[in-house]
Every structure is written in structure tokens, then in C-alpha cells.
């Protein structure tokens, strides 16, 4: 089986995989330069329309991955699956969904982790091993994967991919224990942030890392169970939210029913703070906190910490709209739609060069001249990474006639790379790691610049009420305090390899 791919103006035939199952990855290098969530996962157990439910669930998680999508379904005997490049609605049609027969499924949407955008990156990955078929969908990053891979290779394992997922599959396959215990042993060897959905011909296993770094929730539709990266995916299929998957937890669903178990004791709870700040949809709930409400509180707290007199408040769409409303309500300054997003363009990081990135901002956003002209504007945004996008947006407002542009960021300065599933630039390229706030203000051409304090962020999310360390959040990208070991003799890697 071969698939044709196009590279630039040159067309070539390339064998991406052979046989019945796909089992190839393309690496974890990344040429993009701003915050990027890697993927979303969705699983169904015990519903005759598992494929259709996964389709709608993945559609709700589309913001977590716009490059590729895939669904694998089990009917108790065989796997049926389909993956493709593009949006969920582009990858699947009525006929493809109808061909995915079974009452158990896992699905995945993802962004690229390398400049080579190919079908070979799409998940779920599907493997054959001694006990049958195995499919895995994951969100996150295994920090010690290079070290484990090297040890497995030295003991005779032959790898065909560069994906973290294959490491987990090898660890499971090499174990002499039955599947569930083998999976527990394999997961205990992993360090990092991950949310896994694993499916065999007759089982669905759900697991979260011991710190709960990547979000994963459970819901019910009648007698069926559903699992998703965000609760918004439950709403779209009419599922009732049950609870978040706990750190170190492992759930087993099979013909014997639903079993709550764990592969390890929970460690310091540390859900990624950027989920609240930027990645998750505003209609999702994480750890009992609604994202829209939390972001409004961030904006309100920002107004208390760094008030500036102005004529209007506007938010950078879409993730900063809620915070801008909160800032406006707290200050009494009118909220206006000063920036409009073109919904038919992707996020700016998909552009491979600096020139195209800046042009991408122009295509993505427009300033509303009649709203901002002659006005002092408070521009609310969620983060500053390199500063190039922020500078372009500030200049858009100035070109539209804004007399002043004051930038308020509803997160602390982003100074450190993420090792748990967000692709970030090298620390030396993060503007906050080498410039002061005043220097950053000059760089982005703003009249003033202020960031939300860590305390303000935790308070806004409601974390202090939980009694957990740092409100149960991972703030390592802000304070360099990583919840796990990240140095494995130079073998560690950041970003995401899902």
C-alpha cells in the first residue's frame, strides 16, 4: 500500500506504511515558534454509535489539533480505523463513519510536531502484538523517552518510529504479564505529562500521569462511558460530566464492566496552567472551574493589579475575550470589539517563516478602525512568547488610529520551555527570559505593559481554595519549578511527541 505525497513543487511516491496497520512516525522536531497545544483525545466504551460519537467529540476538540484526525473502532474481534490530514470534517464523511463499526473507539486530533506534515503523523497509532491488536491515542510528552528507547534498543528492540507512543507499545509487548498489569508496569516507567487512551480488541484503558499535567475527563451517555481532553466534547454528544481522571489513575473497561484502578500513587497535582489561560475552550470545565469564568476573573484581577486609564478595552480573539470582559467590568471602561478574527485562517504558528508569520497575523486579525480610532486602548492578551505577534497586533491598532495602546497579559511572563506537551521555542528565544518588562514594552511598541502575577493567576482560577501546592497548577513555564525530573543526562526533550 503506497500513498502519494507532494513536497513543494516536486511530487513523489512514498511508502508511508505497509501491511494492514499503520506504524510509522516522523520525528519530534519543530520549526514553529509560538505556543502550541498538541492534540485532543476522545474515547467511547459501550455505545453502538461509537464512531459517530467520536466524530462529534473530536469536532468539539478541533481547537486542540487542526492538522490531522483519526478514529479507531473495535467490534470485539477486529479493528476498523481511518486517519487523514486536515480538519475532522475534511477527514471523515458519512461513508467513512458508517464503515467504522463497533461499540468501542478512540479518536485523536493533533498539530504537527515537525515541519514535515504527513499522514504518517496521524493517530491513533495501531500495532499488532502477541495478544492481538493495540491502538493508542495520547496527549502529552514522555520526558525520559529517549533514555527508555536507548535501553530498549540495546536489549534488542527494533524501532520503526520516532514516536513516544511506540516506546509504550514496546514496554507493554515485552512484558510477560497480562495486558492490564503490563500496561501498569509500562506507565510506571514513564516520566512526563500524558493522557493515554489504549484500546485492544476487547478492552479500553484510560490513564493519566501521576501529576495530572494533561487534562482528561469522564462522562456518561446512558450506560456508555466517554472520555475526552475537555468537557466541551461531552456536551456536544449529550453526555453527562462525571469527573476528572485523577493523577496516576488507570481505568479498565471491558466485558466485565468498569474498574477503577491506578498504576501509581498520585504525586503533586500540577494541571497545566496554560489550559486555563489559553488552550481549553471557554465552555469547558477543568477541576471544577469553568474556563470562561476563570478567564473573566483573570481580567478582573489584572485590572486590580495594573489599572490604566483608557477609553476602551479590547481582547485579542478568541482566547482573551473573556479576560477582556472581566477587565472592563472591573474598571468600568467599555468593552469593544476592537479586533476581529478571520475564522477561516489557522493559528499563526503554522507559518514556517518569520515573514509569513507576520503576514499571517495580518490575515488573521483586523482592527476595527471606527472603534479604535482616536481612542486610548487597553489590549488584553493571554501571553507573550517571542513578542513578534504582540508587536504586530499593537501596530494594527495604531495603524487604525489608536492614540495609545496599553497591553495587559493575563499570565506571568513566559520564561521557560514546556516539557509536558506544549511545543515552545528554545528558552533563548522566549522574550521574557532575556528582556525586562520595560524592554518588552519597547519591543512590542506598547505605551505600557503589565503581566498578571502568579498569585493573581492562582487566585483567579480558584486554586487557593483547593489547598494544593500552587493551587494544583503547573507553573513551570513561568517560574522554572518543574513537577518532574526533566534532565536525563541530555536525553530529555521538550514539546510533544504524540
Would you give an account of this structure?
The structure is a single chain. By secondary structure, the chain is an alpha+beta fold. It folds into two domains: 20-267, 4-Layer Sandwich (Glutamine Phosphoribosylpyrophosphate, subunit 1, domain 1); 275-479, Rossmann fold, CATH 3.40.50.2020. The strands form eight sheets. The chain has a seven-stranded antiparallel β-sheet with strand order 6-5-7-4-13-12-14. Strands 8-9-10-11-15-16 form a six-stranded antiparallel β-sheet, covered by helices on one side. Strand 15 and strand 16 form a beta hairpin.
Strand content: 25-35%
Q: List low-confidence stretches.
A: 1-34, 347-352
As a whole number of angstroms, the C-alpha radius of gyration is: 23 Å
Number of domains: 2
Strand neighbour order, sheet with most strands: 6-5-7-4-13-12-14
Topology-level CATH name of the largest domain: Glutamine Phosphoribosylpyrophosphate, subunit 1, domain 1
Overall shape? globular
The N- to C-terminal Cα distance equals: 24 Å
Which CATH class of the largest domain applies here? Alpha Beta
CATH architecture of the largest domain: 4-Layer Sandwich
The helicity comes to 25-40%
Query: Care to count the β-strands?
Result: 27
What is the average of the pLDDT values?
Answer: 87
Structural class: alpha+beta
Largest sheet: 7 strands, antiparallel
CATH homology-level superfamily of the largest domain: Aminohydrolase, N-terminal nucleophile (Ntn) domain
Number of contiguous helices:
16
Care to give the gist of this entry?
The protein is α+β, with helices and mostly antiparallel strands and 498 residues long. The longest helix has 15 residues, at 291-305.
